[in-house]
Amino acid sequence: MNKTNWQKITVSPQATILQAMQVIDLNSSRIVLVVATDNSLLGTLTDGDIRRAILNHNSLDSAVQEIMNPNPITVQIGTPLSMIRSIMEKKDLLVMPVLKDGKVIDLIQFKEFFSKPKIDNPVLLMAGGFGKRLGNMTKSCPKPMLKVGNKPIMETILISLIEAGFQHFYISVHYLPELIKEYFGDGSRWGVDIEYIYESEPLGTAGGLGLLPNLNNDLPLLVMNCDLLTKLDFASLINYHTVSHSDITMCVREYEYKIPYGVIETKGDKLIGVVEKPTKSHFVNAGIYVVGQRALQSVGRNEYLDMPELINRCVSNQASVQVFPVHEYWLDIGQYDDFQQAQDDYIRNFA
């Protein structure tokens, strides 16, 4: 990585978490370097650090120095690449700052050791819905085939997943399945494998899991709704699920809303405070999941089941269910206004 590029992912210790998120999203770097004005390395802030901060409800206006790692692993200039690769493999590091006299002069990325990422986990794209909320737009066209920019929504999703390294895909279909299969075929056009799961009757957002063939490995399955556009770091999601030893990992999105009234706080019949037009925050389902083999095998063939029901079932059975916050670009194309928004967003994020 040349000097100009690594300098694009530096921030000052006073920069906000939100500013660091914007740097990571803009440069697809998964990390920012926290440096002084003379490029002395003060710490690092990774994509994972930010997601943990979001889960802990840290304010995005907080300074990065409050959550950064002040003692990152680094190497000195002149360290052989073979040694750097060995350290990165043992420590599971994606990037390694190179220092000279405590100052950053380079950044080694683990992907530089390989020509192309490869993720063996299978993917299930849920494309069987009717898309009724979009009215006449989906009367003769399934929602995944609606064009955003110059491509069907699902093609943009597929390309994003292929670029992340996925190669084996299943597509669950029900409504107008022939239009989807005719366009995507067996996946050879994109150099991947695509198989189809046919729901003779709608089975809900998780019922298609019960129709999957026996997978030839124990790898967890990535499941994604086909009415989403996102720049989510899918490799980080898979890694998070794996290291968490989770049965299901649900991607969540922080949703804020403002109550347009003064909220009264009481204790019995006594008023103890008034909060004027407070903003509330909750995590909402982002429509992307990683499902382990134990959870997969709990879904019966042709069983009608929605994802929330499957997740609640797993929780009731003491299974491990984790959440993975999405701070990257994400849009659920549910309503007509969302579809129009997607047209504008496509140019900035996917064109």
From TrEMBL:
It comes from the Bacteria. CDD domains: CBS_pair_NTP_transferase_assoc, NTP_transferase_like_2. The keyword Cell membrane does not apply. The keyword RNA-binding does not apply. InterPro entries: CBS_dom, CBS_dom_sf, Mannose-1P_guanyltransferase, NTP_transferase_dom, Nucleotide-diphossugar_trans. Keywords: CBS domain. Residues 1-62, 68-123 form the CBS domain. PANTHER family: SUGAR-1-PHOSPHATE GUANYL TRANSFERASE. This is Nucleotidyltransferase family protein.
